[in-house]
Amino acid sequence: MRLGVCYYPEHWPESQWESDARRMAQMGISRVRIAEFAWSRIEPEPGRYDWAWLDRAVDTLARHALEVVIGTPTASPPKWLVDTHPDMLPVLKDGSAMQFGSRRHYDISSPAYREHCARIVEAMTRRYGEHPAVVAWQTDNEFGCHNTLPSYTDAALSRFRGWLAARYETIEALNAAWGNVFWSMEYRGFDEIELPHRTPTDPNPSHVLDFRRFQSDEVGSFHRLQADLIRKHSPGRDVLHNFMGFYAAFDHYAFARHGLDVAAWDSYPVPRTEVLPLPEADKHRWARTGHPDVSAFSHDLYRGVGKGRMWVMEQQAGPVNWAPWNPIPRDGMVRLWTWEAFAHGAELVSYFRWRQCPFAQEQMHSGLNAPDDRLSPGGEEVSRVGGELRAMQAWAKAPMRSKRASVALLFDYEADWVIETQRHGADFDYQHFAFEWYSALRELGLDVDIVSARDDVDGYRLVVAPTLPILPDSVVDQIERGANHWVFGPRTGSKSDTLAIVEHLPPGKLKSVLPARVVEVESLRPSLRPTLRLDGIEGEAVRWREHVQPGAGTDVLARFDDGSPAMLRRERVTYMTACFDRVLLVAALAKCVGDAGIDATPLPEGLRLRRCGALRFAVNYGDRERKVPAPDGARFVLGGPLVGPIDVAAWIEED
Amino acid sequence: MRLGVCYYPEHWPESQWESDARRMAQMGISRVRIAEFAWSRIEPEPGRYDWAWLDRAVDTLARHALEVVIGTPTASPPKWLVDTHPDMLPVLKDGSAMQFGSRRHYDISSPAYREHCARIVEAMTRRYGEHPAVVAWQTDNEFGCHNTLPSYTDAALSRFRGWLAARYETIEALNAAWGNVFWSMEYRGFDEIELPHRTPTDPNPSHVLDFRRFQSDEVGSFHRLQADLIRKHSPGRDVLHNFMGFYAAFDHYAFARHGLDVAAWDSYPVPRTEVLPLPEADKHRWARTGHPDVSAFSHDLYRGVGKGRMWVMEQQAGPVNWAPWNPIPRDGMVRLWTWEAFAHGAELVSYFRWRQCPFAQEQMHSGLNAPDDRLSPGGEEVSRVGGELRAMQAWAKAPMRSKRASVALLFDYEADWVIETQRHGADFDYQHFAFEWYSALRELGLDVDIVSARDDVDGYRLVVAPTLPILPDSVVDQIERGANHWVFGPRTGSKSDTLAIVEHLPPGKLKSVLPARVVEVESLRPSLRPTLRLDGIEGEAVRWREHVQPGAGTDVLARFDDGSPAMLRRERVTYMTACFDRVLLVAALAKCVGDAGIDATPLPEGLRLRRCGALRFAVNYGDRERKVPAPDGARFVLGGPLVGPIDVAAWIEED
Amino acid sequence: MRLGVCYYPEHWPESQWESDARRMAQMGISRVRIAEFAWSRIEPEPGRYDWAWLDRAVDTLARHALEVVIGTPTASPPKWLVDTHPDMLPVLKDGSAMQFGSRRHYDISSPAYREHCARIVEAMTRRYGEHPAVVAWQTDNEFGCHNTLPSYTDAALSRFRGWLAARYETIEALNAAWGNVFWSMEYRGFDEIELPHRTPTDPNPSHVLDFRRFQSDEVGSFHRLQADLIRKHSPGRDVLHNFMGFYAAFDHYAFARHGLDVAAWDSYPVPRTEVLPLPEADKHRWARTGHPDVSAFSHDLYRGVGKGRMWVMEQQAGPVNWAPWNPIPRDGMVRLWTWEAFAHGAELVSYFRWRQCPFAQEQMHSGLNAPDDRLSPGGEEVSRVGGELRAMQAWAKAPMRSKRASVALLFDYEADWVIETQRHGADFDYQHFAFEWYSALRELGLDVDIVSARDDVDGYRLVVAPTLPILPDSVVDQIERGANHWVFGPRTGSKSDTLAIVEHLPPGKLKSVLPARVVEVESLRPSLRPTLRLDGIEGEAVRWREHVQPGAGTDVLARFDDGSPAMLRRERVTYMTACFDRVLLVAALAKCVGDAGIDATPLPEGLRLRRCGALRFAVNYGDRERKVPAPDGARFVLGGPLVGPIDVAAWIEED
């Protein structure tokens, strides 16, 4: 459990660096990320490098025993480079080209830009790769931010055609796979294919899905280009990237296979809650705290992406600047978010940023210090955490690997692309749907591991998949040979690998373990809400419902009031035929949790529990003091058995 | 009363064709539409035709006594053609060019594309024109769909200039007609004129209206190009086009004069109800049935366009894919819609589509069969209708020409363009307004013929015109020499042929039969609702109101509570000075209906009546069983005197 | 107090001109604006001028003793000019070029267009500059209308680079001032700088602010080009421009220094109320009258811009055409608006337009006459005002210079640009916020002078500044050496001249008179409304709140219920830390007004008072008769002590 901070020495007078480093160390900060937007200072003219200032900055930090994470500066190429290669600029879906003047003004497919990225990364890693203070490298910054993915450039088109040729080999195979006969969309060669945009009506969904896959691969290969150079010149250091919350434009599991030691992510709970498609009442209720499951969802997701290694690279430490409205977090939230991150297995919580920058785009984004260098309210909270960590001594330094949870939630990036390509109902959002399931399980007091739908889930008592339109073979294999319980949501198994309806109708491959035939599906306008009762609880379907005929051996656990089956089960496999409202979803999952032999601990509003290593944490987002479910006589290393509003407790709970 | 289906042999293995055809025939289907998206299979390379597969498909259908309707494939030109003529792509109002990848990716004004259309249609009609199974030809598919009209290409500009030169002869005449002096918009020659888009503020409305007329003519001449070839090579077959519901981007009456035997249209009541500007309460109430007047409105409109000959070329047969939300229709709706179409005079009800296609853009659009070839719920209902038709024997085969209704509703495409060009109030929509009047009349139990505002309406007891901004001379002539009653809505007679205010103020030409002067007009924000009472019923004006001074001989039938006249009448001519809310509109029309000597039959929610040939039909969209107004002892050929929810009855009612 | 009218002789048969002029004079109109859209008639071919018709038009007006205001026609260049210089067309922020077909189709930075403007203005001023009937010149028409500012052309970019080079001298200075190091946005030369648009995320706010300043200067120099020619060829005549209401895309105070004698503006209270970001309840309540403070705000603003000289160049005289909905004003409003304008110091109230034009874009915009030449209801009201003015005799002719009000409201165009560049909260609108303060003061019965934040405010008892992010030094100087009371709203003093956070934190320079430190700021979603009580009145913060630590000598006058200070004061300086809801704002300002020793006269709904010269006016926008606060025995020159709904009174109130 380490603290870190994002620091931009180039933004401040060099005279301030020494005191900055000293104060960081005093606060309990031990890691500092630098340099990821400094290209124009590192290479002020084409080919002329200026390392002197960065050498001094790294050395200053090192003198105070601070470990350094260097970011490659490829998210902000300088103007001279853009002027030399104007076709490196990204192009939006509507065909308009972006220009220089902010950041991320590059097309990830540009061959020229890739060359320059390799050049600058090679230069940086050669310079600092073996510096003893340097412990990790971050590639670029927040891939895809600001809607720069997908990019619709000529370079993207050219590489997409190559990608397709490699995937399908013959144009006939592609035409067949996409069903291009449908509207005379058949191509005679790969060079006839365009990017799937600016069509009078929807492009072929198979075309779109392959383009999304291609773009995802492009992000991976762009990262790999840098990761390989880092490995070569900076042996033994961690390679990471700082991902974003609720962002799925590329497959993070696949990305990780391109060279990643740690999945780092940037956590901004308050603006995230404002911009997610949550109900208005939730946005209001949690406006100053973030929704209690929003950060946890990403912690659990990225811990899976990093195969257990997860950092928070940027932690919100006060009000920010980028949501439609930007309220001040409630007192105590910065501390709460920090402990919550540790509870979910974060090795490092690094705050954004050391000091609020008074100029340029993010001047309204707070930091640990105000622009006048006094600690901000958030900075004061971090100091408190620093003290608490010191007081915890050994516990803070113990390996805090998360235990395998009892429940696994299967997450799938392709599922997001499939749903987005073919929502069928205007308000069907995959990530939000997965979040609803996650949140319901968390309200039941359960730890949840979010894992790839292609992972091995042996050892989990219960595996839930909100939806998996393209169902991997491995899932069915695991159901057949395993002993765990499974719950699937609607649309599961409905699509082939090329986004066609599966051959013998949905739920496709799932039929072998859950005989059923999805006869018809429907999306539901917000006012259409079919009702049912489950274990005495009244609930409604929202957004989506399927009419399913159960097959041999499949039981109907619940029916809608109009008679249509709502929950099906055969042995250890349960299928929900609709999206359920919150109350019904909690009831349905509680039933499955219980049937899987897991003890749930239904929690009051705002309280959440989480086991990590030998500790169990309780975090209280709510307004009332709560008693935590610690065993009598439990030893508390943080707080005590009563946890107040916006407070945290942790106690030892050996197996 | 025939059943049909849309079928795409090219989407399926040839081994399936025979069984498909056999099953169609068994279900009672007798007509099959094919080929309208098959260009890439008919001409896979420039100039190389492949007829073999289509020959076999037609012959397979013919073997099962199925009659064939061939669609020309010009709505989906193949990629090789687009690459040869990239300037054939359409351009949106914002100036952005569309590209290949879906359908309708062509500009209707492109000379090159017109040539290729003529070539492919000539080839097809030569090949199949005299095939005995071929009974009709459909040109293209849903002209204007996906907002491809108007198209703002260079070709459109060039032809528009020519069209204007032909219309105005001299530029001085055009400048005067458009009032171009207004903002120094005067042109020195036709070649200075641009398309009316991308102007800092509104372009001249006269300019816009002429552009809309030009585009409408372009659609007509594009169709005629094909119709002439069909006539030449396929004598005796019906020429038709499949129009859309609530679509007015071209003048369908004028179009029909370019060579049309049957007005076919594509009926999707559920998504149509979702996307029309109906009140939210109506959208919810009728979400699974479609609004009870939505299909009927188009039936009655297109029966008029086809001079009595109307087909439903594509009938929704289950849930579709293209509305924001796509619920499953209530059980029985596919059958109900079918009988309703026959009741309104459809010669054919053809379902879209034979089998749900599991790939490409419309995979979430149901058909009569599921992708696994089992009948869908809609398919089951069609089978039932097939049986009912067989049971009706002679009645099903009798000529079912609609009787002239007692009421004519005047419809005018130019009225739509005028209102859209100059809404004045943000929520004034011509088609929706016409629909409100139609719906009110239908709620009164009346049959309504929707006819062109330029038609002869002799023989109708009552003629209603929701609005006719550009009032044809023929209307005034008919009022003066006829004996029928007339009701006009606001804005009637307000505009000249070039979209200027009429010379002596509105209601313009109507003054000769209804002396009055429209002093001022206003559009009303939704919260502004002037009130009045009419025959004891309280109501409100919405969206639009006029302050009118009645002239000599004109009576004020009703006044708003603030004293402003609401209904004026002189002899047989009534004028409403505002848009009325539903309650008031029904009351006002009921009054006029009664005064015209017509017996109304006010109907309960969801019930509708319709006379066709010697039969009278009752269709019940509602949730309660209703008694139909059949004479005692009437002979029912379908159902009986009590018609249940989502059910139909028909009895013989000789004159 | 004069009446005027906008007249377009080129739109009407010459035979009508004489009667038009005679009727104008009879109605009491004495000034006529002409020619501002007549370029195509003045110069029908390149270089060929046709003066004859305009000579006759001016002479016709002069024969009836009407004074003429000539508008330069540069807002509507003819097509032939656009075809010669296609790069004179404006470009929108999204990069799309506009085209000919309406008006304002020019880029204010185009060198070629500026040349042609100079040419046509020189020709016109040479022709009419010394005509005895010509008393004033209006340049162009409504600069910036239809979102034509800013314009993103190549010409703008070129001139912007020059403007920046002149402002910063070296690129290093610019990089430092903008903080370009932030995201490697550093430039190596001025020719590397782009316009601040089409960036993946927000461009640097300093970049945007300088671009807004540049564009504002461009408007000024464009106007100056014409003003200088007018001065040269038409000595002694007033130079003016007709500004718009609630429009701040250029700095009108700075503009006035480019050569302006009178600030004229175009007053459309009803549509303005519809389009302003007012609460829905207000839009409904005042839908037919305009909000009672909407016109007054602009009167008081433009009176300040014109250094006391203000005209209403275009006064709404009936329903218009350009809002989403366009209701008919209530009877009496045209008269009320006229007297209200005089009460606020208008020298002239000129109606738009003489006669409703039946053709082209504004055919649905009413005038004093209907298209059939009968007086419209608004025209009747103007006739009545003409009679009232005649009856008032000397009072109508007396110099009606407004007295200095007791309260000055500081207005600042840069404040608008700063807030718009960096709203931080989605609904923070500077002009609306300033309007809320103005309206609250007016409800307290006070006259308000709106003055530039850079003006000398000596003599005002109370000076209020809703917000001044960039606080001029002169304000602090005046506080220190003056005796008046000051009230500042949140965000004041928060930004440097280059839109960075001020060096020692907000409120920046204000600290010298109000020691305090703004620790954190927040924008508030509409549902987040921190509460407080002030003098027993409950209220809420909306949109924005600051957490402020008061410094030595600064008192906390009010705190939010959560303890955070809401109002701070040190001696004569008060600071509100949040945006207050209406009730709270009125209470807070009432407190400050009282403490400043000013007598407030809280007014009932819809009633407003205004002193001008020796007269005091009461205007009643409301529905109930009200007693005006005239001294006993006051002599009324208009109405009497009871003023009815939609009526006006005026009495003599000597000092």
UniProtKB/TrEMBL annotation, chains A, B, C:
<dbReference type="InterPro" id="IPR003476">
    <property type="entry name" value="Glyco_hydro_42"/>
</dbReference>
<dbReference type="InterPro" id="IPR029062">
    <property type="entry name" value="Class_I_gatase-like"/>
</dbReference>
<keyword id="KW-0378">Hydrolase</keyword>
<keyword id="KW-0862">Zinc</keyword>
<feature type="binding site">
    <location>
        <position position="322"/>
    </location>
    <ligand>
        <name>substrate</name>
    </ligand>
</feature>
<feature type="binding site">
    <location>
        <position position="103"/>
    </location>
    <ligand>
        <name>substrate</name>
    </ligand>
</feature>
<protein>
    <recommendedName>
        <fullName>Beta-galactosidase</fullName>
        <ecNumber>3.2.1.23</ecNumber>
    </recommendedName>
</protein>
<dbReference type="Pfam" id="PF08532">
    <property type="entry name" value="Glyco_hydro_42M"/>
</dbReference>
<feature type="active site" description="Nucleophile">
    <location>
        <position position="314"/>
    </location>
</feature>
<keyword id="KW-0479">Metal-binding</keyword>
<feature type="domain" description="Glycoside hydrolase family 42 N-terminal">
    <location>
        <begin position="6"/>
        <end position="391"/>
    </location>
</feature>
<feature type="domain" description="Beta-galactosidase trimerisation">
    <location>
        <begin position="405"/>
        <end position="598"/>
    </location>
</feature>
<dbReference type="InterPro" id="IPR017853">
    <property type="entry name" value="GH"/>
</dbReference>
<dbReference type="InterPro" id="IPR013738">
    <property type="entry name" value="Beta_galactosidase_Trimer"/>
</dbReference>
<comment type="similarity">
    <text>Belongs to the glycosyl hydrolase 42 family.</text>
</comment>
<dbReference type="InterPro" id="IPR013780">
    <property type="entry name" value="Glyco_hydro_b"/>
</dbReference>
<keyword id="KW-0326">Glycosidase</keyword>
<dbReference type="GO" id="GO:0004565">
    <property type="term" value="F:beta-galactosidase activity"/>
</dbReference>
<feature type="binding site">
    <location>
        <position position="141"/>
    </location>
    <ligand>
        <name>substrate</name>
    </ligand>
</feature>
<dbReference type="Pfam" id="PF02449">
    <property type="entry name" value="Glyco_hydro_42"/>
</dbReference>
<feature type="active site" description="Proton donor">
    <location>
        <position position="142"/>
    </location>
</feature>
<dbReference type="GO" id="GO:0046872">
    <property type="term" value="F:metal ion binding"/>
</dbReference>
<dbReference type="GO" id="GO:0005975">
    <property type="term" value="P:carbohydrate metabolic process"/>
</dbReference>
<dbReference type="InterPro" id="IPR013529">
    <property type="entry name" value="Glyco_hydro_42_N"/>
</dbReference>
<dbReference type="GO" id="GO:0009341">
    <property type="term" value="C:beta-galactosidase complex"/>
</dbReference>
